[in-house]
Amino acid sequence: MEIRLSPFILIMASLFLFLLSEAKTMDPYKVLGVERNASQREIQKAFHKLSLQYHPDKNKKKSAQHKFEEINNAYEILSDEEKRKNFDLYGDEKGSPGFGPGYSGDQGGGHTFFTNEGRRQGQQNFKPQWQGTGGQGGSQSFSFSFGGPSGGSNPFGFGMEDIFSNFFGGGFKDEGNFGSHFKAQSGSKSSSIIKVVNKQVFKQEVVGQGVTWLLFPITSSLKGVDHVQSIIEDVASSLQGALKAGRIDCESESSLCKDLGIYPHRTPRIFVYSYIKSTDGSLVEYSGDVAVKSLKSFCQEHLPRFSRRVDLRQFDFSSNNGGRLPTLMLLSTKKDTPVIWRVLSGMYNKQFSFYDAEVTDVSDPTIKKLGVDALPAIVGWLSNGERHVLRTGINVKDLRSAIDDLSYLVNGFEKKNRKAASKPASKTQSDSAQNQIPLLTGFNFDSICGKNTPVCVIGAFRSSKARNKLEMILNMVSQKTLSRRQISAPGSKESISYSLVDATKQPSFLKAFDSAGFKSSDQILIAYKRRKEKFAAHLGEMTEEEVEKFIGSVLNGDITFTKTRQKPVLK
């Protein structure tokens, strides 16, 4: 196939090909300063170091901006195994014929090329041919001989229509997608680990779902997108299963970006949907260095914390679920709540009450009592109080597989709880649950004796004998109608709560009512109005009749309340 060109067009085409050849001599290995046998880890480290050095935000020189673009292009080639292989073989990341060194032809000094697929096929000679036109004055014109079959892909790996459309009037098909290739180069690198987030996805999958998100708003004019996105990809990959990553196009989703206050201007912005401040979650902007280590630490800090850290010596196993949600507890040797457990506590925070405790070994009597024979272990309580050891001696391969495995375990326990709840409880179980007086701790104080509870009746004891006596009396009194006001369901505005407190373990709590902490008494009854921070105490004889009389006087307003010395605090 021959196409005749005027000398002017030939000169322009030659100039373009020369410039293109110059552009393609860029060696990504030299740009990043790594050896040709460098590992992906070495390439990644070199890229991060150089991109920080030449980032436009930190280096305002024009040469730095050009260098930054070069670094990004080099990393895009070497971070992709296919592009890197093509470059090593052919001097071009697409496997297309290149103008790089080492590919000189063997016929008439023309250039030798390979086809798009990167396989060495029939060699193509590219050289101008002089042909007479037979026109007036014996003028000559030029033609390009491509040497390939008519209608097939041209040997350059790009179509001529985009570049020469003004000259050829659209006579070529862009089989090689040359123009689209450059558009793709200038856009952000796509990745399956980063999800496209629109208004609907944000509402349904991000807000209040208990899962931490790493969010990256972008616009077409934003600089440094590739670098920031590669960092986000690395962080999301290392925390896969614990964290999700999303990209928000603030041009197509401008109202969402403006409503959230995350619209980027000249430089990229990174946000984390965090559960540190509220159970519904909120956006927190990251302001540290754009580096994997620091961003990952920031994300880990903002993972959910719905699990309560407890001391097993003070944890009341008989009343941990409060008759509402089933309970899960992790027992491990970790000094802080493990990341896996924090993630699960976020995913299932509406279905379970989560706890975790640090333990030394399984020889602890409390651990033995729970039936645990190896650590780490997960113990669960159904809503009816029934205890189950879900798993012991947990082995973790990686974060994602651990989350998947334990999610399956938790889902199974939830099904068991629903099945147990659908069965009518036996009379013994019902009576036992109804007559339990919970032990007051710092973890259940708000739920048992909250500000919406008019009166909290608290029985303090210093011995097991005193505890048994108080529990029996309060059980009986709590079932009776003491006055014109009836005791209603716990949690209602007209309810009275009944609880016990171990005076030997909670001395500071009792000192809020008495400077000596009622040390001279083995058992004390306190009526506490938390909203008003007032109380009344009964130190007399502890019989059912006397206790009933005291509580009746409290409800009828026949007894004087005193201001507390300080705010009561429980461990």
UniProtKB/TrEMBL annotation:
Signal peptide start-end: 1-23
SUPFAM superfamilies registered for this protein in UniProt: Chaperone J-domain, Thioredoxin-like
Xref: Gene3D superfamilies: DnaJ domain, Glutaredoxin
Alphabetical keyword list: Signal
Statement: the UniProt record of this protein carries the keyword Signal: yes
Domain J as annotated: residue spans: 27-91
PANTHER family with a match to the protein in the record: DNAJ PROTEIN ERDJ3A (PTHR45184)
The protein, known as: DnaJ protein ERDJ3A
Organism: Cucurbita argyrosperma subsp. sororia
Upper taxonomic lineage: Eukaryota, Viridiplantae, Streptophyta, Embryophyta, Tracheophyta
Annotated gene: ERDJ3A
